[in-house]
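ok so i was messing around last nite and threw this chain in just to see what happens. nothing serious, just curious
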Amino acid sequence: MSAADEPGCTTATATLIGQVSDMPGVLAAAQEGAKLVALWPLTKASELSNDAKYAENLQVRQTRAMAAALTGEHVTIADAEYVYEGAESIPGRPQSIVDALLAANAACDAMADYSQTQDHRLLTQAGAELGLSWDDTVLASCRRSLAAIKTGQDNEPGPDRRISRSLAAVTVAADGVLHAIAAPDIADVIAVVLVADELCETLSIPRLFLAEDALRSAHTIYAGDGSGSAGDTAVTLPALAGILAAAARNEWAKHTEDVLWNPEEAKRQAKADDERRNREALAAKFSKPAQ
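result:
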């Protein structure tokens, strides 16, 4: 019997998921996620349009962060937009940045159908776009993690708990994959984040976004400091959970705001804010004693 077939493997995974799902940061993220999920199904044309724009902007933001982490260079949103729209070079910008953005977009595109198919060849393809060559050990960990986390997700009472458990499951899966990689580098972390993002879709929770600093922080956890803690799930899992939960909470709040954005209301609010600032400035001016 292989490790993937052992009953204890699923039991241990379920225990870890339960522990992570009760972390305050994960519960707080789940509350934001529940607000977002409650908006669906979207029916207003404006909200449907806003959500489509969000999805497009998400890949631009993701690839910018990925390219910045891969190169260590300053990558702008404009750089990422140009490459997303098909550019293969950008006048005045380093080709290393463009190449990293091309690779990041190719990896995202390769993984796009994973949530629907669970075809692990897509993991191999996405990794190859980032210069990785994941072996059967890593791919087996992906399959094992997915099989374990898909059980019991619909039995949680209320959307908050379902989302917290699903986010915990994604975290446990990502931790397991990173432990299956010997000395993971930043490209490995990026590839695992793409897997985690697809697992969110598989478990019907909103997608994630990790900024460059979050990607680097996650890499630091698994690169280790020489103490051996990088190989200890008791150390790495809560640390990764903290990063993913904070990222999820911020992103899901942004996604909700983006979907509900109303240009007329935004214009009215901006005008009201300008008028308030003008009144405050006048009040401050005339409240000064005469010299």
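not much to say yet. The chain has two domains: 3-260, 263-291.
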